[in-house]
Amino acid sequence: MKIAAIDIGSNAARLQISTVLQVDELVSFKRVEYVRFPLRLGHDVFNFNRLTPESEERTTKLMQVYKLLMELHEVEDYMACATSAMRESANGPEVAARIKAATGIEIHIIDGQKEAELINNVVVQALDGAQHLHIDVGGGSTELNLYIDRRKVNSRSFKIGSVRLLEGKETKGAWKKMEEWIAENVDTTQEVMAVGTGGNINKIFNLVSKTSDNTATLEEIERMRAYIDGFSLDDRINKLRLNADRADVIVPAADIYISVMKWAGAHCIKVPDLGLKDGIIQLVYERWAKKHRKKK
Question: CATH for 124-276?
């Protein structure tokens, strides 16, 4: 059986199709298709407070493509979620309704709390018993989640993201609020391990000369940030082989991860290569399983 997740963010929209694998009672998911397209909806919303007709047309076309891919893969169930850009857009619900009418795909515009919950449901599997600060940086927002002994004890969403910073549209005082939240909630007298999710930290981690499978030091992240920043935008694309829509936002995103780690006193960051799309996949499976249990 195959299920799918569509994640429509401020920078890009992603489709992930996974096969459900089951051995006895253990269920896991194997990715069989992954497509990412740079819609950059945040550019419209953070500058004009609404999605333009051009962005709506591009999003509609992309959803048609994703629908065809899901049909070819014979996907049994799926869910599409939109985050910061569409939820802040004055015409977000109207655009989502028109896209549903045109494609049949219903886009759920989720709030920051729901976004964090979906990501946390998969990230918690990568944690141990220590104090962890989960940092999820998107194009329009950053979610911070504090875990102690694998139990989430606090969380908050901040209107700071890679595209928002690139456009110079971060909310006034947002950096200070983030620093204060960390000071109030993270026990800096105890060891804290950062956990990073999001496309930019994955790319930075892949560029870092690593000594472990999924962990990098703050110094390595800072060094890679400075290294990337030393290249022009064209050279980031041609020499570092970054996608064009990654090349311009990767340094602002790195600034967020680095600032949060410094404020929290975290010397290392785990990068488990998990994100919202994986949380949606898990939710889709749970919904499908519940529906079929009732039928029995």
Answer: 3.30.420.150
Q: How many of the other CB atoms lie within 10 Å of CB of 64?
A: 15
The secondary structure of 178-203 as a DSSP string is HHHHHHHHS-TTS-EEEEEESHHHHH
Q: Where are the domains of the chain?
A: 2-112, 124-276
Residue whose structure tokens are 């709030």: 111
* Contact assessment for residue 199 and residue 286, using Cβ atoms and an 8 Å cutoff: no
Query: In 3-state terms, what secondary structure has residue 162?
Result: helix
Half-sphere exposure of 14 (CA within 13 A, CB side): 22
pLDDT confidence of residue 195: 96
| Per-residue pLDDT tens digits for 102-136 | 999 999 999 988 998 898 889 988 888 789 999 99
Provide φ and ψ at 230, rounded to 5°.
-75, -10
Domains 2-112 and 124-276 fall in the same CATH topology: yes
Alpha-carbon 277 to chain mean position: 8
Among positive and negative, which fits the CA dihedral 245, 55, 164, 134? Answer: negative
- Using alpha carbons, list the distances in angstroms from residue 296 to 57, 290, 293: 42, 10, 5
* DSSP codes, 47-79: HHSS--HHHHHHHHHHHHHHHHHHHHTT-SEEE
- C-beta separation of 10 from 45 below 8 A: yes
Instruction: Classify residue 101 by burial, with Cβ atoms within 10 Å: 0-12, 13-18, 19+.
Output: exposed
Contact of 125 with 270, CB cutoff 8 Å = no
* Residue with the two structure tokens 């690139």: 166
Distance CA 141, CA 144 (A): 10
Fold of the 2-112 domain? Nucleotidyltransferase; domain 5 (3.30.420)
Predicted confidence at residue 283, as pLDDT, reads: 96
The Cα 9–Cα 137 span in angstroms is 11
